[in-house]
Amino acid sequence: MLLTFSLLDETDLQQARRLLADAPWADGQFSAGDQARQVKNNDQLPTDCDAARALQALLLRALDRSPRFLAAALPKRVLPPRFNRYSGDANFYGPHVDNAVRFGDGGLRVRTDLSCTVFLAQPHEYDGGELVARGPDGDRVVKLPAGHCVLYPGTTVHEVRPVTRGARLASFFWIESMVRSHEQRRLLLELDDALTALRSRVGETEEAVALTGTYHNLLRMWADT
Ligand code: NI
Hints:
Layout: E1 3-6, H1 10-21, E2 26-27, H2 34-37, E3 40-41, E4 43-44, H3 50-65, H4 67-73, E5 75-78, E6 82-86, E7 92-96, E8 101-103, E9 109-111, E10 114-119, E11 126-128, E12 131-135, E13 138-142, E14 148-153, E15 158-160, E16 163-166, E17 168-177, H5 182-202, H6 206-222
Antiparallel strand pairs: 1-14, 2-4, 3-7, 4-6, 5-17, 6-17, 7-15, 8-9, 10-14, 10-17, 11-16, 12-13, 12-15
Helix pairs in contact: 1-3, 5-6
This protein binds nickel (II) ion.
The site of nickel (II) ion has 3 residues, from loops.
């Protein structure tokens, strides 16, 4: 399941874009696995620079405040967000699957259940640069307004199409979910969405309380914390 939603408010978006404008970009190959390195051609922000640290904090705060992200990802661990730029000669990332396990500082290990891309340039600022995710029902082509994100299973073959004008700026990161199974996580999100709609229509009825209990009991059964 691939989900898109708005993540950054206007203030955060402008702040992120200011930080990215002066950022010390570097060749993106250093973060790719062996297979990915052959198809990857973009710029990335070194993770240890001031701009990256400020941007990471901004993104992580936004994730913590996003009910949609929390409900859909049920995050257990989130790797510090990274930032990339596709423009000029460094303008594409061919079809690949992300590494199953990623390593962060201090021995942090994250199983990449979910991948997230946050678009930080407006669609009219560049041509191409769509994220294409292969699925059983065909390709999904994603190009979102700045501040919006796409969340998709880490098992997905995906690519970024060549950028032929302008610059595509984005943040990307991986999430290990408390609920490893995509199917179980999807059921929980469907139940959560239906409950939210039910509650807004009829209020906190006895049935809504009972179904909320069912949601939490399923999460208790499936969650690994
Ligand atoms: Ni990837």
